[in-house]
Amino acid sequence: MTYPWPHVGRLVAVTPPIEGESLLSLIVRHVELNLLSRPGEVLEEVDIRTATPGFMPFTMRDSTADLARALGCREDEILSRIYRQPTDSRHEAVNFHGALLERRFLEAKVRRVSPQALGVSPHHRAAWMVRALSFCPESGELLIEACQACGCTLGWTRCSAVWRCDRCGFDLRRSTTQVPSRKETAEAIAAARLVDVRSDIRAAELACLPAAFRSWDPGQAFAAIVEFGLASSTSSDARAARNQAVGAGDFSSFTIADLAKGRRFALDWPESLAELAREEYARTGSTSVRRCFGTLSKYFYASTPPSPLRDLIRDAAAAALHEARVPAKLAAAVVKGGSTRTRTISALEVERLGISRRELRRLEGKSSTFVARQTGKGGTTLYDLEAITGLKADLEGSVSLQEAARRLALPAYAFEAILAAKLLCPVSNPDVAVVAAEVRVTQESLNGIIGALEAAPRKDVDCVGLVDGCRRQFHPALWAMILAALLSGRLPISRRNRAGKGVFDSLRVARAPLAELLGELARQPIAPNVWASCRTIAAVFGVPEQVVSAAVRAGLIEGDLLVRTSRVSLASAGAFDRKFVMSDEASELLGCAKPKIWGELTSRGLRPVASVCRHSLWDRQALERLLNS
Question: What's this model's pTM, rounded to 2 decimal places?
Fold first, then answer.
């Protein structure tokens, strides 16, 4: 084709560019206006020959002057619609109308359109090239990329009109498409303003985000919102596959709802990052930083290229884990500027408070409510200041069961029943039991019991020493019942003798109420499924623990001897006590020394029925008949 006028390569009819119009739309409108059949005919006039015109905005920066003369517009109007020189990286940022966007975000080959927007003005909007936008920011409806008449994908190579199918000629303005919910669309449209062609719109939307994003380029903020939308997806099983697809430039699964979630995630920063860590920890149970943040965990890989989003996530990660109370560790290189120092305390400072490094290590592996540790800048191990302060106060305000047993002069095996009866209060902080490796009770509840017993009124009645009156009582609830009766006044206290003894050792109580209590206890059977350790049973019998273990192995007492723990049936131990008498008890009943008990009983015709661990067992009924005779 030749032109009779001197402007070489200029078309017969020209039209000015429309604000927000893509470069290919401008070329195709000239195709339609000059009654041509395809964009290639326009490009050939300026000596540009390409089989895929869709890639022109990324490849033809050197021909802008000729194209501007052919289209009858200024060169800067063409330059603003050309985004970058060609490279092989999908992640290289391009200048998209003033916003930095990675190349993978932009669609070149497929023509995506909005039927309603084409009905208003039949030109292709540049925003429709952004793959993460599955909708039109102008009309709010979903974009289509295939003809509803013939089903073919819309392209640019044979396109003679933006509003027409390049295969069958169907009027795309007659197509029907979905309109998403108004709330999600409004939030997604707000996020789309970050890649608007107008700089003032981009700046206004960027100012709506938290301060951490306001110094970024709007395109970088938009990319962050896309990543946040993937991370906050409800379908945790599909997130990895979707993240991989989006990283490769496939946004087919990225919806308006995802974009709206991503914007809400950005608006709630950094609380949203802590909430994500909390949800991921509850779902996976993993304390690995590379799993605590879902798809955002990829920003902790060493191969992840530097970016504002990577630095932002790494800088906020420690504080987010702290807020979410996730026991994860962070390498020193991940934490910037010592940001984890807020509301934290170093291990050295914790040791100065009286909590050893060994006790802290117990927390790391066993505590579910304590943030184990975060390694800050320079490798300093940091702990939650509030949790450590509470732990220190609870340790100082509590005593071990052994100390409580010493002060009350009670056997240690009785405290399980005492705690079950809520007569003593265990420490509510679970970290105390982890650090101390035992159950502890509050000093306040222990001092309350001692004070109440000391303040109880004294009554002059027939009395007996409390410990002597309860000798050889086996039931585990004995001391809990007696303590409750003492506190309620049902068991009167006659006299106290506190000269260097524990509380219960020094008490003398009314004989008749004590006998009544013991009778009630005898009428309460021991449940068959109640178990105690060999140590507890040995304390009741007054024999070494090995004797009880030997009785279990001999089949005389029902129980299990495990590698680290043991358990004995209380009902079986009670039956053993009613059937057999050991030498210690026999010597007390006969009133003779223990070394002489063998000769005393054998001289009266009794023989031991069994022997466990060199302890003779005598038949209780035969011994009682001997005593009665």
Answer: 0.58
